[in-house]
Design a protein that fits this description.
The chain has 836 residues and is α/β, with parallel strands linked by helices. The chain contains 20 helices and 29 strands. It folds into 4 domains: 213 residues, Response regulator (Rossmann fold, 3-Layer(aba) Sandwich); 189 residues, Response regulator (Rossmann fold); 51 residues, no CATH class; 264 residues, Rhopdopsin 7-helix transmembrane proteins (Up-down Bundle).
C-alpha cells in the first residue's frame, strides 16, 4: 500500500509539546477526480506560491520562538511545530492532516511510533472548506482545532462542534459593520461579488436579507465560476469578460467583495483580461471582507494595483508586533527545518537555487543573500498582517491553555490526554505581547472586533494601510461603529470627495419618494409634497403634516409658527374701525346734546321726545359695542359681543317701530269718536319698546344658558394663521337673533312706508322708511358676506354692518332735524306746525 501523495513541503521544529498546523499558501496543478476511473497518483510538483501567505508560517514559528524564550509560560517544556500545506485541495488537506497525526513515511491510521510528534492542537485553516476538511479528521481524535478563517464551517458538518475554536470574531459582526458602513456614507445602490460556492452563496444571501431590512438595494450580484485548479481560469474567459462588463456598465459606485484568495485572484485576472494587457480602471469603491490582504502574485501579469486605490476593507483587529520584523531579517533560505522557504524564495525573487531540479538557463541564481524587506508590499509585508496576527494569537491560546492544564496536574503524566485541553481553551484569557486582551467566548469565537482599513496604492506597487475606523461589538451601542471619513483617501476619479452610490439623485427636502413600477425600492421618482405637508430630510418616503400650530413654508421643507389672527387694536384696520366707531359715538353724543338743549322745541317734542332719547342712547351703545369685536377674544367679550349687540339693536329698532306707530296712531286719534285715543301716549311707546326688547333678551338668555359663546383657537381655518375667534356655541341662536332684528326692521319699514304721506310738518315716517331701508339692506348683505369671510375679516364685516346700519338710522332720522334746529330754526315753531 502506498500513499497517493508523499508531500515534501513542510515546516518542522522539534519540541516536547508539539503544535500542528495546516497552512494555505500553495496552488498545485492537480486534475480533479471524475470517479470514472482509478485516480492517478498526485505528483508533488513545484507549486505556485501565494507569497504573502508564507507569512502565516513565519508567524507560527515566531510565536513558538517567543514562548520558548518566555519562562512564564511552560517553563519546563519546549514547544515544537509541525506544519503542512493544504494546497487548496481537499485530498491533500486530508492527507496532510493524517500526516500530522501519524507521522510515518507511510500513513497507517491509528498507529504512531513517534508519540513526541503527536500534536496537542492543530492551527488551520485559511478558509471554511479547508477548516472543515481538517475538522472532519481531528474531531475523531478529540484534538482541538484553532482556525483563523472568517467564515465558520457549517455546524451540522462537524460532528462535535466543541472541537473547533476560532481566532476571529463572529462573521455576523462583519455583516453588521458593512451595513453600518453603507449607512454612514448613504450608499444605497451597491453591487455584490462572491465565489459561486456555498460560502459565496451564504455571503450573498446574508447581505440580501440585511440590505432589505436597511433600505439598501443591490444593483448587481455576480458569482465567480469555480475552478478545480488555478489553470482553469483560462477556460472561463467569457464569464470573466461578462463580469467585468457588468462592473464597467453598472451605475453603482460601491462593490462589496467576499475577498478570499480564489475570489481576488479571479477578479484580478478578469480585470486584466478585459483591458488586454493592462488592468482596467473602474470608478468603484471596493469594500472587501477581512480575508483580503492585498496580495499580488508573480504569475498575475501586468497587475496594476491602482484599480484598488482607495479601497476599504474589514480586517480582524490587530496591533503591530515589532519584534516580528527582526525575526524576518534572520530568515535563511538554507534552513533545514523550513521546507517552504526555498520555493517561496525562488518565486518571490524570480531566481533559482543551483541545486534545483528545474533548469536554470536564462534564470537568475538565488544567492540566499536577498532581503525580504526589499520585496514590495503586495508580494510580502514586513509588518504582521491581520491573519498572521490571528495565527500568532492562536499559538499563544494553545500555550496558555496547555500551561493551565499542565499546572493543574499534581503528578506529571507521561502521555497527557490532550482532549482534556478543551475545557481550558474555553476559558482562556490573557494579554498578548502587543497589549491586546485575547479571550474566547462560550462559542469558541474570539472576543474582538474588526478594523476598517483604507488602502492607498502608488504607481510603484507600494501601498499604505490606514486604519480609518473600527467595528467593536464589545463597546456600548453608540460606540460600536466608528469611522473617520476625513482621513480616507478615495479614488482619483472622485476628486477626493465622498462618492455617491445611489440609483438616482436623492429627493431633496420638500419632495418625497415615489415608487417606480418594476424597479427596486432604491430607484424612485421625486414628487413634490402636497399642500399642507412637508419633508425636511432627503429621501423621505412620505411627507408629514405640520403640527396644528405650524404651517409649511413655500418650499415645503420646514414648518413655520402660525401667527395669531384676530382684529387687533395695533393694526391699521383695527385702528381705523376703532376711530370710526368712536367718531360716530361722538357725533351721536353731539346730536343727543342738541336734542337735550332744544328739548322744548316742537321738532324735538314731536313723535315722542322720550323715544328719541331712547333711540339716541341705543345708537350710542351700538357704536360702542362694535369695540367688543376688536382685540383678542376672551370669555367676557365673547359672551357680550352678540348678546349685547342683539339687545341694544332690538331697543333701537323697537324705538324706531314705536315712533312709526306713534305717527300712525296720532292721525287716527284725530278722527271723531276714535276708540284708540287711550292707547296714544308715553305708556304705549314704552310698552312697545319693552315688549320687543324683552323678546330679544329672552332669546339671548336661552342662548347663554343652552350653548353660550366661548373663545376658541381655530388651527385649521387658515393655512398660515391661528384664528382666535369667538365660537358662537349655537349658530342657530345667532341667526334667530339676527332674524328677530330683521323682523322688527321689516315691520318698521312697512308701517313707515304706509305712513310716509300723512300730512305733518314733522312727520318722521318718510325718514324712518329710508333708515329701515338702509338697515335692511346692510343686514341682508351681511349674511352672505359674513359666511364667505374667514378669521378677523368676519369681525370686520360685523363691525362694518353695525356701524353702517346705526349710521343709517342716525343720519336718516336725526340729521334732518338737526339741520332744522341749527340752520333753519324758523321752521322749528308752533306757527309752522299749525300752518301745515
Amino acid at each position: 500500500m502506498k500513499d497517493s501523495l508523499q508531500v515534501k513541503y513542510q515546516y518542522y521544529q522539534p519540541g516536547e509539546v508539539n503544535i500542528g498546523g495546516i497552512a494555505s499558501q500553495f496552488f498545485s496543478f492537480f486534475e480533479g477526480a471524475d470517479f470514472t476511473k482509478h485516480p492517478d497518483l498526485k505528483s508533488d510538483v513545484v507549486p505556485l506560491v501565494m507569497l504573502k501567505k508564507y507569512q502565516h508560517v513565519l508567524s507560527l514559528a515566531f510565536a513558538v520562538k517567543e514562548i520558548n524564550e518566555n519562562h512564564k509560560i511552560l517553563p519546563n517544556l519546549t514547544l515544537g511545530l509541525h506544519v503542512y500545506d493544504s494546497h487548496f485541495d481537499a485530498q491533500i488537506t486530508y492527507q496532510n492532516t493524517l500526516n500530522l497525526l501519524f507521522s510515518q513515511k507511510m500513513t497507517i491510521l491509528n498507529y504512531n511510533c513517534d508519540m513526541q510528534k503527536n500534536p496537542v492542537a492543530v492551527i488551520g485553516g485559511l478558509d471554511s472548506e479547508t477548516s472543515l476538511h481538517i475538522a472532519t479528521i481531528l474531531v475523531l481524535y478529540k484534538i482541538p482545532q484553532i482556525t483563523y478563517c472568517l467564515y465558520a464551517p457549517t455546524t451540522s458538518d462537524v460532528t462535535e462542534r466543541s472541537s473547533l475554536y476560532r481566532m476571529v470574531p463572529s462573521e455576523m459582526h462583519q455583516y453588521t459593520g458593512m451595513v453600518k458602513l453603507l449607512h454612514h456614507f448613504q450608499w444605497k445602490w451597491v453591487g455584490i461579488m462572491a465565489m459561486g460556492d456555498d460560502k459565496g452563496e451564504k455571503f450573498v444571501q446574508t447581505l440580501e436579507d440585511l440590505f432589505s431590512q436597511n433600505d439598501i438595494c443591490i444593483a448587481f450580484t455576480r458569482r465567480m465560476p469555480i475552478q478545480s485548479n488555478i489553470l482553469d481560469v483560462v477556460n472561463f474567459y467569457d464569464s470573466f469578460m461578462n463580469i467585468t462588463t457588468t462592473l464597467i456598465e453598472s451605475t453603482a459606485k460601491v462593490c462589496l467583495v467576499s475577498a478570499d484568495a480564489h475570489m481576488m485572484l479571479d477578479l484580478q485576472v478578469a480585470l486584466n483580461l478585459h483591458a488586454s494587457g493592462s488592468m482596467v480602471l473602474l470608478n468603484k469603491v471596493w469594500v472587501m471582507t477581512a480575508h483580503w490582504d492585498f496580495s499580488m502574485e508573480p504569475f498575475v501579469q501586468y497587475l496594476d494595483t491602482q484599480v484598488f486605490h482607495g479601497a476599504l476593507s474589514f480586517a480582524i483587529h490587530s496591533t503591530e508586533v515589532h519584534p516580528f520584523q527582526n525575526f524576518l531579517r534572520i530568515q535563511n533560505p538554507h534552513s533545514e527545518g523550513d521546507g517552504f522557504i526555498r520555493v517561496f524564495w525562488e518565486q518571490a525573487f524570480s531566481c533559482l537555487f543551483p541545486n534545483t531540479e528545474q533548469g536554470i538557463e536564462n534564470r537568475k541564481i538565488c544567492t540566499g543573500e536577498e532581503k525580504l524587506e526589499s520585496l514590495p508590499g503586495p508580494i510580502f509585508e514586513r509588518s504582521m498582517t491581520s491573519q498572521s496576527y490571528s495565527i500568532y494569537n492562536a499559538i499563544y491560546v494553545v500555550a496558555h491553555a496547555f500551561h493551565a492544564m499542565y499546572s493543574s496536574r499534581t503528578k506529571p503524566v507521561a502521555v497527557p490526554q490532550y482532549f482534556q485541553l478543551h475545557r481550558f481553551l474555553s476559558g482562556v484569557s490573557f494579554n498578548n505581547s502587543a497589549g491586546d486582551e485575547i479571550s474566547l467566548d462560550q462559542k469558541g469565537e474570539l472576543r474582538a472586533g474588526f478594523d476598517i482599513v483604507n488602502w492607498v496604492t502608488f504607481p510603484n506597487n507600494s501601498f499604505l494601510k490606514v486604519k480609518v475606523g473600527r467595528m467593536d461589538p464589545q463597546a456600548s451601542l453608540d460606540r460600536q461603529f466608528f469611522i473617520d471619513a476625513n482621513i480616507i483617501t478615495w479614488q482619483t476619479q472622485f476628486n477626493e470627495a465622498v462618492p455617491l452610490s445611489l440609483c438616482n439623485e436623492p429627493c431633496n427636502p420638500g419632495y418625497s419618494r415615489q415608487k417606480k413600477e418594476g424597479q427596486p425600492f432604491c430607484c424612485y421618482a421625486c414628487a413634490r409634497c402636497p399642500e399642507g405637508k412637508i419633508s425636511n430630510e432627503q429621501d423621505m418616503n412620505d411627507c408629514t403634516k405640520c403640527p396644528e400650530y405650524q404651517y409649511p413654508n413655500k418650499e415645503r421643507n420646514e414648518c413655520l409658527l402660525k401667527d395669531l389672527n384676530f382684529l387687533s387694536y395695533k393694526e391699521p384696520l383695527g385702528i381705523s374701525l376703532m376711530i370710526l366707531a368712536l367718531s360716530l359715538s361722538v357725533v351721536t353724543t353731539f346730536v343727543f346734546g342738541i336734542f337735550i338743549k332744544h328739548r322744548n322745541t316742537p321738532i324735538v317734542k314731536a313723535n315722542n321726545r322720550d323715544l328719541s332719547y331712547s333711540l339716541l342712547t341705543s345708537l350710542l351703545l351700538c357704536f360702542l359695542c362694535s369695540l367688543l369685536f376688536i382685540g383678542q377674544p376672551h370669555l367676557i367679550t365673547c359672551l357680550l359681543r352678540q348678546t349685547g349687540f342683539g339687545i341694544i339693536f332690538s331697543v333701537a329698532v323697537s324705538s324706531v317701530l314705536a315712533k312709526t306707530l306713534t305717527v300712525v296712531l296720532a292721525f287716527m286719534v284725530t278722527k271723531p269718536d276714535s276708540k284708540i285715543r287711550k292707547w296714544v301716549g308715553k305708556r304705549f311707546a314704552s310698552t312697545v319698546v319693552l315688549c320687543c326688547s324683552f323678546i330679544q333678551a329672552a332669546i339671548c338668555t336661552v342662548w347663554l344658558c343652552v350653548s353660550p359663546p366661548f373663545p376658541e383657537r381655530n388651527m385649521n381655518l387658515l393655512p398660515e394663521e391661528i384664528v382666535v375667534e369667538c365660537n358662537e356655541g349655537s349658530a342657530n341662536m345667532f341667526y334667530f337673533l339676527l332674524g328677530y332684528l330683521g323682523f322688527l326692521a321689516l315691520v318698521s319699514f312697512l308701517v313707515a312706508f304706509l305712513a310716509r304721506k300723512l300730512p305733518d310738518t314733522f312727520n318722521e315716517a318718510k325718514f324712518i322708511t329710508f333708515s329701515m331701508l338702509v338697515f335692511c339692506s346692510v343686514w341682508v348683505s351681511f349674511v352672505p358676506t359674513y359666511l364667505s369671510t374667514k378669521g378677523k375679516y368676519m369681525a370686520t364685516v360685523e363691525i362694518f354692518s353695525i356701524l353702517a346700519s346705526s349710521t343709517g338710522i342716525l343720519g336718516c332720522i336725526f340729521f334732518p332735524k338737526c339741520y332744522i334746529i341749527i340752520l333753519r330754526p324758523k321752521l322749528n315753531s308752533k306757527e309752522q306746525l299749525k300752518r301745515k
